[in-house]
Design a protein that fits this description.
- The protein has helices spanning 11-22, 54-61, 81-93, 129-143, 187-200, and strands spanning 2-6, 26-31, 44-48, 66-69, 100-104, 111-113, 116-117, 149-154, 158-160, 169-172, 184-186, 206-211.
- By secondary structure, it is of the alpha/beta class.
Length: 212
């Protein structure tokens, strides 16, 4: 595949890039500055791009098989930029012949019980509620899209750099947790799950949760 990856300079974005390249795919990595450190591969190109400009997204997407997003707010940006970028990506792709995209989402909108999302539980950190709600707003925008082939891949409650084991489990819209209630995955294994979905397309129009 020839993949356009938005947010390629972030911690998860870099790991998705490396996973794609390891599997022989070509990657165009997009960041605000166009500078992406630590990736040296002939099948990788770093470019500058504005993920809030639908015309620019359309121009960047042309010639690619799929667009992948590891976008998120950075620095002093408001979390509200998340649903804005989701809408921008959708509008941009509708100007092209590219109809497939993968979106890295958040865990807060995953179900943990009947009619209960993770963000609604007592243990969910108050300071993360605005970010979780922004992810949910972005997902609701994507959920309404039926003219593009999308997959929304959400992490478990905890995700951080760690070991690449190749192991993970998935669930549709439901937080993945172990028998002891722990909900965790390494960024490396999340990248595996994300790229697996880009390759196989088993969860089109699905909120796919991953974890151990």
């Amino acid at each position: 595949m020839n993949v356009l990856l938005l947010g390629a300079s972030g911690r998860i974005g870099q790991r998705i890039t490396n996973e794609l390249l390891e599997r022989g795919h070509e990657v165009t990595g997009v960041s605000r500055s166009g500078d992406i450190d630590g990736i040296d591969d002939p099948d990788f190109e770093a470019v500058a791009g504005d993920a809030t400009d639908s015309d620019e997204i359309a121009e960047l997407a042309e010639g690619h098989d799929v667009v992948a997003s590891a976008l998120g707010p950075s620095g002093e940006e408001s979390v509200e930029i998340l649903p804005e970028m989701a809408e921008t990506l959708i509008e941009g792709l509708r100007q092209t012949d590219v109809d497939r995209f993968g979106w890295t989402g958040g865990a807060g909108g995953l179900n943990v019980g009947p009619d209960t999302q993770l963000v609604e539980t007592d243990d969910f950190p108050d300071e993360l509620v605005p970010l979780a709600e922004a992810h949910i707003d972005g997902f609701e925008l994507i959920l309404d899209v039926d003219d593009l082939q999308w997959s929304y891949v959400a992490p478990p409650a905890q995700i951080e750099p760690g070991e690449r084991t190749g192991e993970y489990r998935t669930a549709e819209g439901q937080l993945v947790a172990g028998e002891g209630g722990e909900s965790y995955i390494s960024m490396e294994d999340f990248a595996i799950a994300f790229v697996d979905e880009l390759e196989n397309g088993d969860s089109i129009h699905t909120q796919l949760a991953v974890g151990y």
